[in-house]
Design goal:
Radius of gyration: 27 Å
Largest sheet: 8 strands, parallel
Length: 818
């Protein structure tokens, strides 16, 4: 049957008028019988037009209202027969009418977000931001012309890696909600989650299972767990005032820190993720989750009969274990679209070293058969680290064609998308480039030029999808935003993209300088990174400087930052600081300072690395002297290690305080916890203990310097942090908002102020103290057809009012009511 042409009118004044025409009426017309996605498109348009700050009246309206003189009708149409791609759309202008025509209702949403981006909006993982100066009119297609858009990749999205405190490991319900809302606005449509399930890396609660009469100890990482180089630390032991960023002794997901036992932890994690994936589904996102079939929890392995040992994926026991895991996965997450099975990480590193192992087809074939029997609409994805691509050509001949092939780029993304993807004719393939690499996960990383290469290669190799791996949020948004836009517009280049991003971070004039700085940093790698620019045996050579999968601050490694990079990143920091110092107080200064602070942190961190290496060399020399029975070892440590440690203490303090001053979201709080657990502990505590081993006790000047280094910053500005800002509520829905007020002075009267858009009066909602300087409050429900509400946090600190966002109530956080 031929698809029928149907339309839901969602009209608004185009705001495309001369400045002398005066304020117009910007009406967004909606139908009462509109679907959820249709209502959402209208209200997201309202949200965007209001956020732009254009003059005039902007509101939802009935279908009979007219915009009047100076207005322009924007007409949204759903017309499946007019487009070959179900996600395509066109934005057309004809006289006083602008039409958003799309193949489907989700494509209408994409058209809205594209339209808003053309007006200056930026959509990132951490949320949306708009130019600091409101435009005088909207940018529209020429009369009689149109903007066409079709995605370059059918599957576009993110693969956030768990395990580190800066990523999804620490998520609660509100964090997942905000994350999926951000993905929708970025025009992504696919989410995937890898879950470690045993072996040397342990197992995570999302996919915990029982087998052979035994369970296993699975958990999500918190600041109290001991994986990935972490040592359990009470957050109250975090120095320099950092303890005030956390509400209790453990930082992490509530599903982990409030669990009574491994089974309770697993149930809490499953409920959290199940609810979150259902929310993603409601927004139209495809979801997937998976594990490594070659890795099985140690407790389950011990429970197997001796006849099934050593564990062999070809054995009957392995098939039964695999099917038990798949059954549990489908029971826990019945709505997932994809089940991912991963080759092991160690196999990839072995392959890079010239020791490739055979990858058995058996577990993947068995999983495919299981899904065909029990979940025929769920697709299997075969994935792995870069080494998995070495098996693609063989497995392509042996696995059913509906199995998707995916893998990460080698060398944490410094190697390009594998050419193996080009040899998979007829099969869906999804390469996974890196928005950031975890050997440098504390460092700012601007990798747009690298991502441009990878996305172009993926398209050239015939790939139908592309997902990107990441941990952090706001600091990777400059790269994530490019992935979002470049997935639709192949003509986009890094330099103009950075200009578009910078317009939402700095005021006119300063935005051009900011864009030039970021583009140069990216193109020429003028700040410290793991990439060296060298190639060995066909692979990029990398150096680890802050790998959060181990001790992080591994200053005992043999590599050192180059003098050229040490100098150039100081110049970058100075250029950014000049922009920050010239920025207007409020939103602009906060946004520019966030970028500046990361680079300034990097300058001090690099100096700390260099100083710690000098101390380590002295300690190594002293160890040899001590082993040889030379009594001069202590003299060497006193003469050479102690004065360098005094310099180190100052640089560590500078680095950490600089980061604490800009920490702004849940991801940053996780990074800060990691810095205190590893960077501060190794530099200020462990190296001091090393010195004591030679001197018997710590010198007076060292102890004095330590006390100075760890004291809270007396100059720290009073501020409020709203770590997660959900931006969408359905009828009757509510969500938790957290408010953090770090600093020495106890805040008073912490509250959330809300109002429906268009109302004058703010309603105050007192927040409840969770612990230390963290409060929580409920946002919603809003029983109204207003379409949009706004909110901001407020407190009194040291007798002065402090708000978040910093320009509130002139600028606030918005929540779309759909």
């Amino acid at each position: 049957m031929k698809p029928t042409r149907r339309s839901f009118l969602c009209t608004a004044t185009a705001l495309a008028r001369a400045a002398s025409a005066g304020p117009g009426r910007y009406l967004i017309q909606t139908r009462g019988d509109a679907s959820f996605l249709a209502r959402l498109a209208a209200r997201e348009l309202l949200r965007g037009l209001v956020s732009l700050g254009l003059p005039g009246e902007v509101r939802l309206a009935g279908t009979e209202e007219k915009p009047g003189p100076g207005g322009c009708l924007l007409r949204f149409e759903v017309s499946p027969a007019s487009f070959q791609n179900s996600e395509s759309y066109a934005i057309r202008a004809a006289g006083a009418e602008v039409t958003f025509a799309a193949a489907g209702e989700r494509a209408v949403l994409y058209a809205v977000f594209d339209f808003l981006e053309r007006q200056g909006a930026f959509f990132g993982i951490d949320g949306d931001s708009y130019p600091l100066e409101p435009p005088r009119s909207l940018v529209l297609p020429p009369s009689g012309g149109e903007w066409n858009a079709s995605p370059r990749f059918a599957a576009r999205g993110l693969l956030p890696w768990p395990d580190f405190l800066s990523g999804v490991t620490n998520f609660n319900d509100e964090d997942f909600r905000a994350y999926f809302e951000a993905m929708l606005r970025m025009r992504f449509n696919t989410f995937a989650l890898h879950v470690y399930a045993g072996g040397p890396t342990g197992a995570e609660s999302y996919l915990s299972f029982d087998y052979a009469g035994a369970g296993h100890n699975a958990f999500l990482d918190t600041s109290a767990t001991g994986r990935w180089g972490f040592l359990p630390r009470r957050t109250s032991q975090f120095t320099m005032g950092a303890a005030q960023f956390y509400d209790r002794e453990v930082f992490g997901s509530d599903a982990a820190r409030f669990a009574a036992d491994p089974w309770d932890a697993a149930e809490r994690a499953r409920l959290l993720l199940r609810k979150s994936l259902a929310y993603a589904k409601r927004l139209g996102l495809a979801t997937g989750i998976g594990f490594e079939p070659y890795q099985v929890p140690d407790e389950i392995l011990r429970a197997l009969p001796p006849e099934a040992k050593p564990y062999n994926v070809e054995s009957p026991a392995a098939r039964k274990v695999l099917e038990a895991r798949l059954g549990q996965l489908l029971e826990a997450y019945p709505d997932v679209d994809h089940v991912w099975l991963w080759d092991t990480e160690s196999a990839s590193w072995d392959a890079q070293k010239g020791r490739p192992a055979t990858l058995s087809v058996t577990p993947f074939q068995q999983a495919h058969d299981f899904l065909r029997r029990h979940a025929p609409k769920t697709r299997l994805v075969l994935s792995g680290w870069g080494g998995a691509a070495r098996h693609f050509e063989d497995l392509h001949q042996r696995l059913p064609m509906d199995v998707v092939f995916a893998c990460l780029n080698d060398m944490t993304g410094w190697d390009p998308v594998s050419e193996a993807f080009a040899k998979l004719e007829g099969r869906d393939r999804w390469p996974i480039p890196w928005l950031e690499d975890d050997p440098g996960i504390w460092l700012p990383q601007f990798l747009v030029n690298r991502l441009e290469r990878d996305m172009n290669l993926a398209e050239r190799y015939g790939c139908q999808g592309l997902l990107a791996i990441h941990w952090r949020h706001r600091i990777v948004d400059p790269t994530a935003g490019f992935q979002s836009r470049f997935s639709w517009n192949r003509d986009l280049a890094p330099a103009p993209y950075y200009q578009a991003y910078a317009r939402t971070q700095a005021a006119p004039g300063r935005d051009r300088r900011l864009a030039a700085i970021l583009n140069d940093v990216d193109r020429n790698q003028t700040i410290l990174s793991t990439g060296t620019g060298l190639v060995n045996n066909g692979h990029a050579v990398t150096h680890e400087y802050s790998g959060d999968y181990n001790e992080g601050f591994t200053f005992w490694e043999p590599h050192s930052p180059s003098p050229a990079v040490i100098q150039s990143q100081k110049q970058v920091a100075a250029a950014l600081a000049q922009l920050r110092d010239g920025a207007r107080p409020g939103a602009e200064r906060e946004r520019v300072d966030y970028l500046t602070g990361h680079v300034e942190f990097l300058v001090s961190y690099t100096e700390a690395w260099t100083l710690a290496q000098r101390i380590q060399k002295t300690l190594d020399a002293a160890a040899k002297m001590k082993q040889a029975g030379q009594t001069e070892a202590a003299d060497l440590v006193r003469a050479e290690a102690v004065p360098v440690w005094l310099d180190l203490a100052r640089e560590v303090r500078r680095a950490v305080l600089r980061f604490q001053a800009i920490a702004a979201n849940r991801s940053d709080l996780g990074t800060l916890a990691s810095l205190h657990d590893k960077f501060v502990r190794l530099s200020l505590i462990r190296l001091r203990l090393s010195i004591e081993e030679y001197l018997g006790e710590s010198p007076t000047e060292v102890e004095s310097a330590y006390r100075e280094a760890v004291r809270p910053d007396p100059q720290a500005a009073a501020r409020l942090i709203v770590p997660t800002r959900p931006g969408l509520l359905g009828k009757g829905e509510r969500v938790r908002i957290m408010i953090v007020a770090p600093g020495a002075d106890p805040p008073g009267r912490v509250q959330l102020l809300t109002r429906l858009r268009g109302e004058q009066r703010w309603i105050a909602h007192p927040a409840v103290l969770l612990g230390r300087h963290t409060w929580q409050v409920t946002l919603g429900p809003f029983e109204s057809n207003a379409g949009l509400a706004e909110y901001y946090a407020s407190a009194t600190i040291a007798g002065k009012p402090v708000v978040s966002p910093p320009d509130a109530p002139r600028n606030t956080y918005f929540v779309t009511l759909a």
